[in-house]
UniProtKB/TrEMBL annotation:
NCBIfam families: PRK07483.1. GO terms for molecular function: pyridoxal phosphate binding; transaminase activity. The lineage of its organism: Eukaryota, Fungi, Dikarya, Ascomycota, Pezizomycotina. This is Ornithine aminotransferase. GO terms for cellular component: cytosol. It comes from Trichoderma cornu-damae. Keywords: Aminotransferase, Pyridoxal phosphate, Transferase.
Length: 463
């Protein structure tokens, strides 16, 4: 059998690629290797990975310990079906995560391949909980605007990322979901309103929505603990999530927190909700940083409250995936979590995040079109505005965030761009989410390149 001609298989400008990329016009750049915080492209240039793709590569690229763990698992067994079998990698990963989450009442872990699958699983668990608890009339979800929870039908239905959702509205979107305001102080907090008053107003809005739709019909409230890609790392006002927990408990409604992007140590605490006070979700989704990009994996952490009801009923979860708890994905994630624990990267993230935020505020805080720098740990967002005094966004056709992104990439820096920040149409932002292993020297380089990129984008406006 002849060898595959890999050169011929590589798309060229003159050849239509067989692979369906996200864009049918623009081609992504080919990466040939990754090491530490850097990616190397086919043309030999290096890119400082300042966003880990989508906040994924928490321990950087090319970690030998993780690679070796993957190969050991492949050598033992690559795949088993979870209906009949389990593996030590899946069991140990679950034990490690529940050791961290058990103090918050989360006692079981369920592993799938993506954050979208994790959200769908959490939604189905929440529905089954009420069904087996004698309340089958609960069929509705309440979520927040300017949030994203995934691409599958259930996850997309509780999301409000308009560009990703509109093509499927009325056909593939559940009509049992309603939305309340995001915890988005930059555009939502009123002049003269204190942080506590803003939190109280948001919680009251949620209570009002529950009562409007009928609290006895609501399955769960779904929220990102720290906002992700849609609105760039928005954080809740003090007391908000404690108030949310109280309102949910008042009506027997479950609380699903989405930490697919902001969890796994990214905000300087392993679970982002730890920094919100006494807030205990009934279901928690994790992903991205869970496997660090070394294998596709995500998961749901399940409270004992939910487990107890299912145990008294069918004693099963009516749901399953072919690649559920995939042995090699679990082995990769377990190795990533061991690196995080061994190198104390969660604590490191808190320190480095404070350093990065301080440097960003010093270097970019006074820039003409930088409206707000926000976030936690190494999960920071920059919102761009046309006018700082009024906080008015650029017109969508200006594509200011994209200009910054392109200018950064030309200088060897990858950042995560976003648009529609404010309402799905208006607003631009960049997200910075480098590996937790990044050094202060490398963070300085990141800030330097970003400042050059911002300056170039601002200069373009004057042309």
């Amino acid at each position: 059998m002849s060898a595959i001609n890999t050169r011929a298989a590589t798309p060229t400008k003159d050849r239509e690629p067989g692979l369906m990329h996200r864009s049918l016009i623009d081609r992504p750049l080919q990466v040939v290797s990754g090491s530490g915080i850097y990616l190397t492209l086919a043309d030999g240039s290096r890119i400082l990975d300042g966003c880990c793709g989508a906040a994924v590569s928490v321990i950087g690229h090319g970690n030998r310990q993780v690679q070796e763990a993957i190969m050991r698992q492949y050598s033992d067994v690559a795949y088993v079906h979870s209906m009949a079998y389990t593996t030590s990698s899946a069991e140990e990963l679950a034990d490690q995560l529940t050791e961290l989450s058990r103090p918050f009442g989360l006692t079981k872990a369920y592993f799938v391949c993506s954050g979208s699958e994790a959200m769908d699983a959490a939604m189905k668990l929440a529905r089954q909980y009420h069904f087996e608890n004698g309340q089958p009339q609960r069929r509705k979800f309440v979520a927040r605007r300017q949030a994203y929870h995934g691409n599958t039908i259930g996850a997309m239905s509780v999301s409000s990322n308009l560009p990703r959702k509109i093509p499927y509205d009325g056909a593939l979107v559940l009509d049992t979901v309603s939305f309340v305001s995001p915890a988005y102080a930059y555009h939502g907090q009123l002049d003269g309103e204190t942080e506590e008053e803003y939190a109280d107003r948001l919680v009251q809005e949620l209570d009002d929505e529950f009562r409007r739709v009928g609290p006895e019909t609501v399955i769960a409230f779904v929220a990102e603990t720290v906002g992700g890609a849609t609105a760039a790392c928005i954080t809740a006002p003090r007391g908000y999530f404690r108030g949310v927990r109280r309102v949910c408990d008042r009506y027997g409604i479950l609380l699903i927190l989405d930490e697919v992007m902001c969890g796994s140590g990214r905000t300087g605490a392993y679970f982002a909700f730890e920094r919100e006070g006494d807030v205990r979700p009934d279901l928690l989704t994790l992903g991205k940083g869970l496997g660090g990009g070394y294998a596709p994996i995500a998961g749901v952490l399940v409270s004992q409250r939910v487990v107890n009801v299912l145990k008294r009923g069918t004693a099963s979860f009516v749901h399953g995936h072919t690649y559920q708890a995939h042995p090699t994905s679990c082995a990769a994630a377990l190795a990533v979590q061991r690196v995080i624990k061994r190198d104390d990267l969660v604590a490191e993230c808190l320190v480095k995040g404070a350093f990065l935020e301080q440097r960003l505020r010093s270097v970019l805080g006074g820039a003409k079109h930088v409206g707000e720098i926000r976030g936690r740990g190494l999960f920071l967002g920059i919102e761009y505005v046309r006018d700082k005094a009024s906080r008015q966004s650029f017109k969508p056709e200006v594509k200011f965030g994209k200009k910054v992104h392109q200018a950064a990439h030309r200088r060897g820096l990858a950042i995560y761009p976003g648009s529609g920040t404010v309402d799905g149409i208006h607003g631009d932002h960049s997200i910075l989410a480098p590996p937790l292993t990044i050094t202060e020297e490398e963070l300085e380089e990141l800030v330097r390149l970003l400042k050059e990129a911002y300056d170039a984008a601002e200069a373009q406006l004057a042309l």
